[in-house]
C-alpha cells in the first residue's frame, strides 16, 4: 500500500476559454485548475463562467462534476450574483448523485450565505433554537 502526499497550490487565473481548451485536450488536471482559477480570479464575466459550470455538472468525469458545483458556490462569493432561477434547481438536481451530493449541498449553502445573508442568519438562529442540546 502506498501513500501519496498532496500539496495545495493556488491555480493561476483563468477564463472559460482556458477551461474549454483544457477540455479539448482531455487534460483533467488542467481542467480542474482552470475551473478554480476561473471561478476565483476570472475575467469578471460571471455569466459565461456560470454557463460553463452548469454545463460541466453533466461532464462524464465525476471530479469535474463535483468541482463544477463547488465553483458555482465560489461565483456567488466572488461576484455576489448568480442566475439563481437556473443554478439552484440544477444544484438540487445533481444532489441525487452520490459523488456530487456534498459539494452541491455546500454550493447551495454558499449561495444562500453570500446572496441572502440575512435569510441565512435567521435560518441559523432558528436552527439553534430547535436544537436545545447545542445550548450548552
Descriptive labels:
7 helices; 136 residues; 68% helix; mainly alpha
Textual characterization of the structure:
With 136 residues, the protein is mostly helical. The protein has one domain (16-135). Helix content is 68%, strand content 0%. The protein is built from seven helices and no strands. Helix 2 (28-41) runs parallel beside helix 4 (62-79) and helix 5 (84-94) runs antiparallel to helix 6 (101-115). The chain is globular and about 50 Å long.
The H/E string reads: HHHHHHH
Output the structural class: mainly alpha
Spatial extent as radius of gyration:
17 Å
Number of strands: 0
Give the rounded overall mean pLDDT. 88
The main pleated sheet reads as: none
Low-confidence stretches: none
Taken as a percent bin, the fraction of beta residues is under 5%
Number of domains: 1
End-to-end Cα distance, whole Å, is 43 Å
Helix content: 55-70%
Specify the overall morphology: globular
Write a short abstract of this structure.
This protein is mostly helical and 136 residues long. Helices cover 68% and strands 0% of the residues.
Amino acid at each position: 500500500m502506498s501513500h501519496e502526499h498532496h500539496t495545495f497550490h493556488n491555480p493561476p487565473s483563468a477564463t472559460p476559454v482556458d477551461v474549454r481548451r483544457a477540455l479539448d485536450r482531455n487534460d483533467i488536471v488542467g481542467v480542474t485548475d482552470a475551473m478554480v482559477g476561473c471561478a476565483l480570479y476570472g475575467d469578471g464575466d460571471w455569466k459565461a463562467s456560470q454557463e460553463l459550470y452548469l454545463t460541466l455538472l453533466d461532464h462524464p468525469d465525476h471530479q469535474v462534476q463535483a468541482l463544477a458545483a463547488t465553483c458555482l458556490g465560489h461565483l456567488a462569493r466572488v461576484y455576489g450574483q448568480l442566475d439563481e432561477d437556473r443554478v439552484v434547481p440544477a444544484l438540487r438536481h445533481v444532489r441525487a448523485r452520490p459523488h456530487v451530493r456534498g459539494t452541491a449541498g455546500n454550493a447551495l449553502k454558499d449561495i444562500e450565505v453570500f446572496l441572502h445573508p440575512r435569510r441565512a442568519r435567521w435560518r441559523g438562529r432558528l436552527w439553534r433554537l430547535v436544537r436545545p442540546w447545542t445550548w450548552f
